[in-house]
Specification:
The chain is an alpha/beta fold and 428 residues long. Helices cover 29% and strands 22% of the residues. The chain contains twelve helices and 19 strands.
Length: 428
C-alpha cells in the first residue's frame, strides 16, 4: 500500500490536520482528507515534524565496528526521528579520501533506515599538517560539503585559513572542533570549582573560546563559511553572537547533553559523564539554552559518540570521551527547550531539521510539511514519559548519560521518503 494517511496530527505543534503520503511524496495536508485506499495512522495529540537531521554523528565504520556500524547507527537515528545524518571523518582509515567517503556513502544507501552524508577530514589523517583531498571528496559520488577534523582541532591558523579558502570555491563549510590543544593537555573535565575539589585536570573555557574567536575572524577575512561544533560555554556564545552581528558567516551547534547536564555529575566519577568538550557549569547550560532560543546557536547536533563497554567501564582517567545521543536527543530538547517555554515545536523543527539541512545542504531534507514535498517525517508523542533503558537501544553501544532518568516524549513513527522506518515506536 503506497498511500498512508496520518490523521489528526499537530503539524509543527499547530492545529490538528491530516497528512496524506503517496509514494515518496506528501500529496496533501488538510482537514478531513479521505482515507480511501490508504493505511491510516491515528495521530491525535501527536506532533508531526519534518524528519530530523543530525549534522554531527559518529558511525565508527570503517574500523571501529565494535562501537557502531553504519547499519546500527542509522537504525538508532531512525529510532530517534532522524531521516538524515552527517557521519564524522574520524574512522579507521580516516575519511580523508574520495574512496573512504564513498564507502561510507554506499553503506548508508544500503542501510535503508536513514540517509548518510559523509563528512570529509580537513587534513590528512586528522594530523593537522596537510590538507586532505577536499575537492576530490566534494566531486565524488558522496558529494561532500562539510569538512571536519572533529575529535581534533585544526589548530594551525594557516591550515585553517587554507581550508576555508578551498571550500569557499564550491560552497562547502569547515566544521571546527574548537579546542586549543596546549591549553587542554592532561585535561579531564571542566576547569572550575568541581575540578579543583576532585583534583582532576581542568579544561578551561578559554581553550574553546580562543579558537572560535580566531576562526570567525579567519572566516571573515576570506569570506568563507565556518561552523562551530558542540559549542559549550557562555563565553563562546558571546563570541558567536558578536560575529553574527558583524555579518560573519558562522553557524554553531549545541549538543543535547550540554543543554541539560553539568560538571556536578562528575563528582560520581562515573565515566559515562566524560565527554569532549566537557560538561560545563549551570551558568553555561542556561546561556546555551537562551542562545539556542534566540538563534545565536543555530542547531542541535547529537555528537553521537558510541564506545564499547570496556572503553567506559574503567577508571575515569582511562575512559574514552563521548556519549550516545541519537535516540534521546529529541526528548532532551523537549525537556530543556519546549517544556521550559524557550522554543515551540516549530522552533524545534527549525533547530533540528530545517537549519542543519541548510547548513549541510542535505537535499530533500529539512523541507516544509506541505503538499509536493518529500515525505521525510517524524511523529512524536509529547505526552509520553519513560525511563531511559539503554538495553533497548538500536545503537550497538550503551554509553548514555541518561540511563535511569525519566525523559519526556517518544518518537512513534519515522518516514524516509514515505516508507516507515519506525512504526509504533519500534523499528520497521
Amino acid at each position: 500500500m503506497s498511500k498512508i494517511l496520518i490523521r489528526g496530527a499537530k503539524v509543527l505543534g499547530g492545529e490538528a490536520q491530516d497528512v496524506l503520503i503517496d509514494g515518496e511524496t506528501i500529496e496533501a495536508v488538510s482537514s478531513g482528507l479521505s482515507d480511501e485506499g490508504a493505511q491510516v495512522i491515528e495521530a491525535g495529540g501527536q506532533i508531526l515534524l519534518p524528519g530530523l537531521v543530525d549534522l554531527h554523528t559518529h558511525l565508527r565504520e570503517p574500523g571501529r565496528e565494535d562501537s557502531e556500524t553504519v547499519l546500527t547507527g542509522t537504525r538508532a537515528a531512525a529510532s530517534g526521528g532522524y531521516t538524515a545524518v552527517f557521519a564524522m571523518a574520524n574512522t579507521f582509515p580516516v575519511a580523508d579520501t574520495a574512496g573512504v567517503v564513498e564507502q561510507v556513502y554506499r553503506l548508508g544507501k544500503e542501510s535503508g533506515y536513514c540517509d548518510v552524508q559523509p563528512i570529509g577530514a580537513v587534513t590528512v589523517g586528522l594530523e593537522g599538517k596537510k590538507l586532505a583531498e577536499l575537492g576530490a571528496m566534494h566531486e565524488s559520488a558522496a558529494g561532500v560539503t562539510v569538512f571536519s577534523d572533529d575529535g581534533k582541532c585544526v589548530d594551525d591558523a594557516v591550515i585553517m585559513r587554507r581550508a576555508l579558502e578551498y571550500v569557499k570555491a564550491f560552497g562547502g563549510v569547515v566544521a571546527q572542533h574548537a579546542q586549543e590543544p596546549r591549553l587542554t593537555e592532561g585535561a579531564q573535565m571542566n576547569e572550575g570549582i568541581v575540578s579543583a575539589e576532585l583534583g582532576l585536570g581542568g579544561w578551561p573555557a578559554v581553550a574553546e573560546e580562543s579558537i572560535i574567536a580566531r576562526d570567525v575572524l579567519l572566516a571573515e577575512h576570506v569570506g568563507s563559511r565556518v561552523h562551530i561544533c558542540h559549542l559549550s560555554t557562555a563565553g563562546s556564545v558571546e563570541i558567536v553572537r558578536w560575529a553574527k552581528s558583524r555579518g560573519i558567516d558562522v553557524t554553531a551547534e549545541v549538543t543535547p547533553h550540554h543543554l541539560l547536564l553539568t560538571d556536578e555529575l562528575v563528582r560520581s566519577y562515573n565515566p559515562v559523564y566524560k565527554v569532549n568538550p566537557p560538561l560545563r557549569t549551570e551558568r553555561d547550560v542556561m546561556a546555551l539554552r537562551e542562545a539556542l532560543a534566540d538563534g545565536t546557536i543555530d542547531i542541535v547536533a547529537t555528537d553521537h559518540a558510541p564506545h564499547p563497554h570496556e572503553d567506559k567501564d574503567c577508571e575515569w582517567a582511562a575512559a574514552a570521551m563521548g556519549m550516545v545521543g541519537l535516540e534521546t536527543a529529541l526528548s532532551v530538547v523537549q525537556q530543556t527547550m519546549v517544556e521550559t517555554g524557550l522554543l515551540d515545536w516549530a522552533g524545534v523543527a527549525d533547530r533540528m531539521s530545517y537549519a542543519p539541512a541548510r547548513i549541510g545542504r542535505a537535499a530533500g531534507h529539512g523541507r516544509p510539511v506541505s503538499a509536493g514535498e518529500p515525505a521525510n517525517l517524524t511523529l512524536v508523542d509529547p505526552a509520553y514519559r519513560g525511563v531511559v533503558d539503554p538495553a533497548g537501544f538500536a545503537s550497538r553501544s550503551r554509553n548514555t548519560p541518561y540511563e535511569g532518568r525519566e525523559l519526556p516524549g517518544r518518537v512513534t513513527h519515522t518516514f524516509l521518503r514515505g516508507r516507515a522506518t519506525v512504526v509504533d515506536g519500534k523499528l520497521a
